[in-house]
């Protein structure tokens, strides 16, 4: 077993500096960053009491025997954290990466997470808002309004949440309606003409009914520019609205109803070129341009991207208490609509564009029964039902510059005219402007689970916990595609063989049917001739058509379900948790746990979805004629240029050992967790240049620790320090898109993630307060990937150093005025990189956002 102390802990000077600071401060409760806030119950800021519900019971952070970080609503307000993309700056075990548009982001905890560029992939990190599971990141990315706190639960969560999460959970808890009238309004203005407005109001309707309304509006010019179109890029244009009712008809019954709507209509995201490959000259040759100054925020596109997200729904939560037993029911229905129209070659040349129209309908029902006995045994028992329907229509569209562009790459502007004449295709048909693919995908996913925990207090201070989750999941999916590319509909080996047979038999190629080929290949006299033709067909020296293979980007698609592939996955799993928690004293708690987790199979809802190897075995150069026996070939289902890939990826199974310490000393809080976490069958999802490949890694593991501390050395002064150290490994990953990665460190996972802050609140005699906050987030230098499928090995690196600051004058009458800055020092780094689309040798990537700053005015009543 690798030691969690193995590896280079020295890191950069920044790591050494802040590790030293942590030792001096002796760390403060992590969680958090929840540090700064007084709770809703009116506890004083200095009391260090942070209430969480990570175990589905209200407990203080120090009493919660799991690794959880908490960010309070006050911290969100002071740090100007508007959505979960910014949350990672105060929760170092969490990383959020935004991809090619406003709706595509990846949530990663302890180095584990999946891309959200494909709606068929279940998230490894579950997002819950007010107890309702949000199945796709696009439904949880809008501005966070009226938030009470955000809890980030690290490691697999199965026994407390009916929807299994193999890597962790982000749980957002908003403020419920109050029976006392109140509210607030806020307006902020910043650089890039950023206007942010939000407000909320709450109060009683009757003696036992309260309401709340809240909303937000966020509009900003783009911090990037599409140079050739003179249009903004990476802008903000989003709003939210939500209404709540809290009904308390009796003393033991509470009903909370929530309805919300959010909208995003933006142009995102900025892509720059890290490596301009050999195809760059052809882009220029057809009158196009591409960005080569990575952090200039200058982009070149043939159209302004359209990103539209509409997300709405409602939930009803009922809580009934009868003596020591409480019952909770949460019923929710949600709809998500996501529309993207984007130039996906990321140049000003009109080569290829994509339209994607997606819709997701989700119904969830959770029912929990929990006890609060005075005796040594307490329990929680729950059931969860999930029903989701996904529909997607996608199109790739060939632009007017495509044929000239690829002709230049081929080295002859008339090359495709000759190919068309030789293959009997209409002139100017290859890469002609218009539809390249028309795609239709759908998936129905239903699952149910039973979960629960039992706590047994052996003696005062020692609690043993056992938990379980049994999940049954089924997915039914259908995928179809029409590929219009004339060249890609012809297999170049088979075309040569058919031509050779026609010549040998002195018949037209149209008469070389499968039956003729079979007879010619097996005939006593003709078999040797067939073998000779076949050997020439797979030899680039004799079959010059093979040089055209790199231009066959979108070959025909084998629709599913079919006679061999039923378009179904069926999974079930029993996960469990074992934990011992001991109160060493009134101020010090320790725990030890072993937990398993599970995530059901994911489906590749993309044009790169191909049969599993075995269902089909392609021949040389994807030849159908030379393909060996397989169910798809023998069933006559094959299409030209068919190859294998990943229709779906099997389940993920997680396990984690964890040892934790939580201490609440006078003025100092400490949370420490050491863990050894493994995922078998991790669902790896990688862009390959023209599509997305979904694979199961055999096993991926990570060892490390999480330290969260908080110190209150004097009245009004609070320091926090949080650190996550990760030592990940691909224990086994033999069939990755970039080769065998077994034994290698996974790319994109930094060894160190740090988050530290200092907050000082100066109280004036008149009751006014001046609140100053400075925070710093760091990711140590790390390789971004393990290689790119087309470009190959590389050494692209990322290091993050973000400084954020704010100052607020809060007057006694409820008015506040302040200033804020995020990324104050304008740190620049690469978010991620990918192979240039249909541009072999080019590497594109996403630059980080620049410095933003502004002023804010609030009034709370």
UniProtKB/TrEMBL annotation:
Membrane topology: Multi-pass membrane protein
Domain TonB-dependent receptor-like beta-barrel, chain residue ranges per copy: 287-824
Localization, UniProt: Cell outer membrane
Gene3D superfamilies for this protein: TonB-dependent receptor, beta-barrel domain
Signal peptide range in chain numbering: 1-34
Residue ranges of every copy of the TonB-dependent receptor plug domain listed in the record: 61-169
Record's keyword terms, sorted: Cell outer membrane, Ion transport, Iron, Iron transport, Membrane, Receptor, Signal, TonB box, Transmembrane, Transmembrane beta strand, Transport
Pfam families, sorted: Plug, TonB_dep_Rec_b-barrel
Superkingdom of the organism of origin: Bacteria
Family statement: Belongs to the TonB-dependent receptor family.
Protein name per UniProt: TonB-dependent receptor
Organism: Altererythrobacter litoralis
């Amino acid at each position: 077993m690798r030691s969690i102390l193995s590896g280079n802990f020295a890191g950069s000077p920044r790591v050494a500096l802040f590790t030293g600071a942590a030792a001096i401060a002796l760390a403060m409760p992590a969680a958090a960053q929840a540090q700064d806030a007084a709770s809703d119950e009116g506890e004083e800021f200095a009391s260090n009491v942070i209430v969480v519900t990570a175990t589905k019971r209200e407990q203080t952070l120090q009493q919660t025997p799991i690794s959880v970080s908490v960010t309070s609503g006050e911290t969100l307000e002071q740090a100007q954290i508007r959505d979960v993309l910014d949350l990672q700056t105060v929760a170092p075990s969490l990383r959020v990466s935004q991809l090619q548009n406003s709706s595509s982001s990846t949530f990663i905890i302890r180095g584990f997470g999946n891309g959200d560029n494909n709606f068929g992939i279940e998230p490894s990190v579950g997002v819950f808002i007010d107890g309702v599971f949000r199945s796709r990141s696009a439904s949880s990315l809008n501005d966070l309004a009226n938030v009470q706190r955000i809890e980030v639960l690290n490691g697999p969560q199965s026994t407390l949440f009916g929807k299994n999460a193999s890597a962790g959970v982000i749980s957002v808890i908003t403020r419920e309606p109050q029976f006392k009238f109140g509210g607030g309004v806020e307006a902020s203005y910043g650089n890039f003409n950023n206007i942010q407005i939000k407000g909320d109001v709450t109060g009683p309707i009757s003696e036992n009914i309260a309401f709340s309304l809240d909303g937000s509006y966020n509009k900003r010019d783009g911090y990037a520019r599409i140079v050739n179109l003179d249009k903004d890029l990476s802008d903000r244009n989003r709003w939210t609205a939500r209404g709540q009712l809290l009904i308390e008809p009796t003393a033991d019954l509470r009903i909370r109803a929530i309805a919300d709507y959010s909208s995003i209509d933006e142009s995102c995201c900025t892509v720059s070129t890290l490596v301009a490959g050999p195809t760059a000259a052809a882009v220029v040759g057809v009158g196009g341009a591409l960005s080569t100054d990575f952090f200039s925020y200058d982009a070149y596109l043939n159209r302004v991207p359209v990103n539209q997200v509409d997300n709405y729904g409602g939930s009803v939560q009922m809580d009934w208490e009868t003596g020591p037993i409480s019952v909770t029911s949460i019923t929710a229905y949600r709809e998500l609509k996501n529309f993207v129209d984007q130039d996906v070659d990321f140049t000003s040349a009109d080569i290829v564009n994509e339209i994607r129209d997606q819709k997701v309908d989700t119904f969830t029902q959770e029912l929990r029964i929990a006890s609060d006995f005075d005796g040594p045994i307490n329990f929680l028992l729950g059931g969860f039902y999930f029903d989701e329907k996904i529909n997607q229509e996608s199109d790739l569209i060939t632009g007017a510059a495509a044929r000239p562009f690829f002709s230049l790459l081929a080295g002859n502007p008339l090359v495709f005219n000759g190919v068309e004449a030789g293959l009997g295709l209409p002139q100017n048909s290859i890469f002609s402007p218009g539809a390249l693919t028309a795609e239709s995908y759908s998936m129905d996913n239903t699952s149910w689970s039973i979960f629960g925990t039992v706590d047994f207090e052996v003696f005062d201070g020692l609690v043993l916990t056992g938990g379980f989750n049994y999940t049954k999941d089924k997915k039914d999916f259908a995928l179809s595609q029409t590929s219009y590319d004339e060249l890609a509909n012809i297999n170049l080996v088979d075309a040569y063989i058919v031509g050779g047979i026609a010549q040998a038999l002195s018949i037209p190629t149209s008469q070389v049917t499968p039956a003729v080929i079979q007879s010619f290949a097996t005939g006593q006299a003709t078999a040797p001739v067939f073998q000779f033709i076949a050997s020439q067909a797979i030899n680039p020296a004799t079959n010059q058509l093979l040089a055209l293979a790199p231009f066959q980007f979108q070959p025909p698609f084998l629709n599913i379900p079919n006679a061999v592939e039923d378009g179904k996955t069926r999974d079930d799993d029993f996960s469990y948790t074992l934990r011992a928690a001991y109160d060493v004293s009134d101020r010090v708690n320790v725990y030890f746990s072993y937990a398993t987790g599970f995530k059901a199979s994911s489906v590749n809802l993309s044009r790169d979805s191909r049969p599993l190897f075995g269902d089909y075995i392609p021949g040389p150069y994807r030849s159908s004629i030379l393909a060996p026996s397989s169910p798809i070939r023998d069933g006559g289902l094959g299409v030209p240029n068919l190859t294998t890939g990943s229709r779906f990826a099997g389940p993920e199974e997680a396990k984690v050992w964890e040892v934790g310490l939580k201490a609440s000393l006078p003025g100092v809080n400490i949370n420490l967790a050491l863990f050894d976490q493994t995922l078998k069958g991790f669902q790896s999802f990688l862009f390959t240049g023209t599509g997305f490949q979904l694979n199961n890694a055999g096993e991926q593991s990570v060892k490390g620790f999480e330290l969260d501390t908080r110190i209150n050395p004097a009245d009004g002064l609070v320091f926090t320090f949080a650190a996550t150290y990760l030592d990940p490994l691909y224990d086994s990953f033999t069939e990755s898109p970039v080769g065998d990665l077994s034994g290698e460190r996974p790319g994109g996972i930094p060894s160190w993630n740090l988050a530290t802050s200092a907050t000082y609140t100066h109280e004036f005699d008149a009751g006014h307060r001046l609140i100053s906050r400075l925070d710093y987030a760091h990711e140590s230098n790390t390789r971004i990937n393990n290689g790119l499928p087309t470009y190959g090995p590389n050494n692209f690196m990322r290091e993050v150093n973000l400084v954020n600051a704010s100052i607020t004058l809060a007057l006694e009458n409820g008015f506040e005025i302040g200033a804020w800055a995020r990324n104050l020092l304008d740190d620049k780094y690469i978010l991620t990189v990918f192979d240039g689309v249909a541009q072999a040798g080019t590497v594109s990537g996403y630059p980080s956002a620049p410095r933003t700053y502004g002023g804010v005015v609030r009034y709370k009543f």
